[in-house]
């Protein structure tokens, strides 16, 4: 192995993205189980090597196969790989005995050797079955299992976003009742809210206020972005949906936030929202960064450009966008 690969040179956000393990879990595995020992910069920021990231990835795969973190955290990398080979062989035998089901009501196993995208697709199908049957407990369980299997970031991007987008589309077409869409929203909101609550920022990092402006009642995208920002190391204050400009500005002042992150979904073009965005920019100090994302931003590009807002698209670009907008005040 090259000496460069052994160097502790990757920040935690890179380790989280490449391994599929959230920054919160990485810290937890280090503190509680001693799963790995990162390097440190002079300012105390964690740094990881390529082998560290591979180790995180191996541990994640073993947990997805049913192992417990306490069983594997202290094992050497070679031992982890040996266990993984055993579990892969076992899963392969299970897959051969149980081909993928089809049709409504068919159960798809969450634990699978398939690539994350394929696994996520099957998980979305299962989640829709739970939504259609109004099985709240099953939907919650599926999301918890999906987070353990895919990692929280991949679950949000590959499962939650497609699930809610399709639920909205089916509701608009009449294929789902309002109660179905509401149950899906409630469970996903609860899942994301719990994830955000578990992410505790370090002292002294920049704060970001997250919500949706007046008239924007769809909050799942904004809440997902709040979790994404918290995992990237920012101190997040989540305000919720449908807030007038003066309330968002007041929250920024009271929390001493360095930036505002807004979600815009529907409608695609509303003059009242354009006015709200302009009013918000006027109420904020020039140093406060305004970032905007969501499926509805295309209709507001001219206004966003006018007020100097940064459009975040796709969500995967959020961490980098926040770093560029807020500078070096992230969590180590």
Can you put this structure into words, describing what you see?
Helix 14 (301-306) links the parallel strand 7 (289-293) and strand 8. The chain has 15 helices and 8 strands. Helix 8 packs across helix 10 and helix 9 (152-173) packs antiparallel against helix 11 (220-231). The chain has helices spanning 3-6, 12-19, 23-33, 50-64, 69-72, 77-97, 116-132, 136-150, 152-173, 178-198, 220-231, 245-255, 271-283, 301-306, 318-326; strands at residues 10-11, 39-40, 46-48, 207-213, 235-243, 259-263, 289-293, 310-311. The chain is globular, with a radius of gyration of 21 Å. It folds into 3 domains: 3-94, Multidrug-efflux Transporter Regulator, Chain: A, Domain 2, CATH 1.10.1660; 101-195, Methyltransferase, Methionine Synthase (B12-binding Domains), Chain A, domain 1; 203-326, Rossmann fold (3-Layer(aba) Sandwich), CATH 3.40.50.280. It is 57% helix and 11% strand. With 332 residues, the protein is of the alpha/beta class. The strands form 2 sheets. The protein has a 5-stranded parallel beta sheet with strand order 5-4-6-7-8, with helices on both faces. The chain has a 3-stranded antiparallel beta sheet with strand order 1-3-2.
Mean pLDDT: 82
H-E order = HEHHEEHHHHHHHEHEHEHEHEH
Instruction: Note the overall shape.
Output: globular
Binned, the helix content reads: 55-70%
Q: What fraction of residues sit in β-strands? A: 5-15%
- Radius of gyration, taken over Cα atoms and rounded to an integer in Å: 21 Å
* CATH fold-level name of the largest domain: Rossmann fold
SS-based structural class? alpha/beta
**Beta strands, count:** 8
For the biggest β-sheet, the strand order reads: 5-4-6-7-8
Major sheet description: 5 strands, parallel
Q: Give the helix tally.
A: 15
CATH superfamily of the largest domain: Cobalamin-binding domain
**How many angstroms separate the termini?**
27 Å
* Poorly predicted spans: 1-5, 91-116, 328-332
Could you say what the CATH architecture of the largest domain is?
A: 3-Layer(aba) Sandwich
